[in-house]
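Narrative of activities, Objective 1.

The group set out to show that a structural description can be obtained from nothing but a protein's sequence at a throughput compatible with the screening campaign. Below is one input-output pair from the validation batch, recorded exactly as produced.
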Amino acid sequence: MKVYLDTFIKMNKFIHRIKLFVKMLAFLANPTVFFRLHYKDFVEQLALIGPNSLFITMITSFFVSLVLSLQIVKEFLYLNANDLVGSILAISFIRELSPVLTSIIIIGRVGSFFTAEIATMSITEQIDALFILGINPINYLFLPRVLAMVVILPILNLFSLLTSFISSSFICSTIYSIDASFFFQSLLYSVFLVDIFKSTLKILIFGLFISIISCVWGITTTGGSKGVGLSTTSSVVTSLIVVFILNFILSYFLFSDLVSSFEIL
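Output recorded for this entry:
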């Protein structure tokens, strides 16, 4: 009986979080919310997310692109398709690997921190204190974090792409004797700039969902220190699942209609 009761409580809490998530999306859809932003907190969140996440993002992108280049380039050389190497790698990084990898890093490093921080404030009644002081927790806690995530993630994505291109050119020039200038020239396939824009749009949506989930899961935490750990774990798992689902949906609608992607400018 206790097992069924615990399951019911968890499901009820999950449904409550989903409702709050939808309300937050509707709240952010109103342009006037930006006038309620606490800019000092916004700048603090920018500093927290950006510089502290840049190094691990670039390191991850560097080694993942090294491995991908090792596995892919030799197959194209075997097919005597040297001029397609840069385009294929660029398409892989821009459309899929870079946005997803950057989002996963941010979920583990920043999303979990957001949840744990707000959850601790919730169980120690600091959020109730904000209400008593006449401060809206949504404007004070949610908005700076959500907007900072949306602003910083596309920048991290661009750094990730640049790192991937450099590491791939390094592998191609040192192991497969493909000149770096030829490699970078072959990066510019016909819809390169369009793909960059769509990749940025994709990671903007990822950042919006990750930040809202992290904050909502934090503010709905109950059960003391154990609840903080459970909410943080649940937030990370939920964010990962949502990113993977969104990645499929966005990839289908953003990239499935493109043709002649392999044409070199």
